[in-house]
């Protein structure tokens, strides 16, 4: 049940390399790429989507079989992931992976992104295989991107937690925390804190989970990170649900849903919150209201 309370912290990792001997991307390509990055940085994924599609079309026409095309596939896959179009995300990320392998270019980031798709679609076994492949690929690269590698380890912690391998998840978290503190990587520390909250929800340590989630709220509010802010609200709702304080759980689930609707203007973002609200009302012996929210949830799922 607690699985439905968890929301992914999406990790944006790009290939960012050009092929030797390929046609050099022109000014139009660079402008569209920069616009894409601005939209994704502002979490404006619906605005980023048509630009990502254009970049793929340009790359397929002007420089097929290139690192730039693999990069474009990866970016489009990531936008589809963030707009919850998982079938399309998986398709383009697999295209990116196939081309990257053909060109013998680094593929760790693509494996990592595929792991996110599998994780979000509840295919934990595939997600675990992908994230382990990502970690193997990171260590095999000439220059290890330590920040991205440790972000991949956070995903591994989440998956280990889901599979109830709490001992190994805890060991991995300690390693991540040590690196985050020594490197001063606040973003990694907060991502690890999110995984720590998820672990504590699974362990039934709800007060500790709430304390961690409140730290996340403060950090994400300061950094204007809207999606992760709503995820932290939902985590607090999940903790209150575990404490059987269903009124408080409903309060935080509703806050998360309302915030997402306000900033993303897309009802697809609130499906899980609607289900959580329905569950909380059901547990609170309010079957009429629960059925109302179940109907809203099922409508969105269709």
TrEMBL record:
InterPro entries: Bac_ResReg_Asp_Phosphatase, TPR-like_helical_dom_sf, TPR_rpt. It comes from the Bacteria. Keywords: Cytoplasm, Repeat, TPR repeat. The keyword Cytoplasm applies. It is found in: Cytoplasm. It comes from Pontibacter ruber. The keyword Nucleotidyltransferase does not apply. This is Tetratricopeptide repeat protein.
């Amino acid at each position: 049940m607690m699985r439905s309370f968890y929301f992914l912290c999406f990790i944006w990792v790009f290939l960012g390399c050009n092929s030797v001997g390929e046609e050099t991307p022109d000014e139009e390509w660079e402008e569209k790429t920069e616009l894409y990055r601005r939209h994704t940085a502002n979490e404006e994924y619906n605005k980023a989507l048509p630009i990502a599609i254009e970049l793929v079309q340009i790359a397929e026409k002007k420089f097929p079989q290139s690192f730039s095309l693999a990069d474009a596939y990866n970016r489009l896959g990531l936008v589809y992931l963030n707009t919850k179009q998982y079938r399309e995300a998986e398709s383009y990320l697999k295209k990116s992976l196939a081309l990257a392998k053909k060109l013998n270019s680094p593929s760790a980031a693509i494996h990592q992104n595929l792991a996110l798709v599998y994780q979000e679609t509840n295919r934990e076994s595939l997600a675990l295989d992908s994230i382990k492949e990502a970690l193997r690929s990171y260590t095999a690269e000439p220059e290890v991107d330590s920040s991205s590698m440790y972000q991949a380890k956070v995903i591994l912690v989440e998956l280990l937690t889901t599979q109830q391998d709490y001992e190994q998840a805890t060991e991995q978290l300690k390693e991540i925390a040590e690196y985050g503190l020594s490197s001063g990587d606040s973003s990694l520390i907060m991502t690890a804190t999110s995984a720590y909250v998820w672990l504590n929800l699974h362990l039934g340590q709800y007060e500790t989970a709430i304390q961690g989630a409140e730290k996340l709220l403060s950090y994400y509010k300061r950094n204007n990170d809207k999606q992760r802010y709503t995820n932290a609200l939902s985590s607090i709702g999940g903790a209150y649900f575990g404490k059987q304080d269903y009124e408080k759980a409903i309060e935080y689930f509703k806050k998360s849903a309302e915030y997402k609707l306000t900033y993303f203007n897309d009802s697809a973002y609130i499906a899980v919150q609607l289900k959580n609200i329905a569950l909380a009302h059901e547990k609170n012996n309010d079957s009429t209201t629960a059925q109302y929210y179940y109907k809203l949830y099922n409508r969105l799922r269709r």
